[in-house]
Amino acid sequence: MTDKIRSMGKPGDKLVTLLLALCLLAVSITVGMVERSIMATVEDDGIRVPIIMYHSILKSAKVQTKYIVTPAQLEQDMLWLKNNGYTTVFIEDLINYVYDGVDLPPKPVVLTFDDGYYNNLTYLYPLLKKHGMKATVSIVGKYSEEFSQTLDLNPSYAHLTWDNLKQMDDSGLVEVLNHSYNMHSDAVRKGCKIMNGESEAEYKKIFSDDVMMTQELLSKNCGITPMTFTYPYGYICNESEEVLRSLGFKASLSCYEMVNVLTRDPQCLYSLKRFNRDSTLSTQGFMKRIK
To answer: For residue 40, what pLDDT is reported?
Structure first.
């Protein structure tokens, strides 16, 4: 009888066990509520996504402008981003988040390189491999077509060939975007904007034909079909956005400077904002803008 009582334990022990169980249950419920609260905040307020806009990369500091950085500056930018917890992603990753709910890393950032300069292969590509980072390159179809024929591959002025683009895309480190076929100019027409006196129907055909020329060339020569269009010089109009949507593009890049807030609404992917990397600023000075 005594042994049976001992095996049942003392009444005080049972009370302590019960209280401990209740405490653990309360903690579990609280943690769950906090986790749900955090998730709800992300869904309600959106995810902050800074996008940085680069162009040409040249070694000589003498040619530095607000649109040309040195390889050393670019690497310093990459190191700063890594050391501050940022993870580089593609625009395609943003599209997958919005449309399919695919998770993004805690601090996503996009590195974009406009115009498809050959020096992106010379200097950017090795740095991406070295640091395990990703970047997006927007090409002008006519430029890539011309340099694919001449093969005059001088980093100072040449543009990426179809073979170059396929090599970079196949690596999984570079995303290739459409930057128009022959609308990278502000001499007469301002980039892709509709012109004064131009009918909407006429404009939509001209713009659509231009965009699809680069789509077809990329598909034929590289097996690439971009879902994002990068506006030359950032010129945008309502008609251009309508054309892009009708052609199946799910995102577009502007030159407005602001941190993007990503939600589940597909509208947030159009006219994405980007910060131009002015080489006259230090890495620390520039990166203050994206925080």
So the answer is: 31
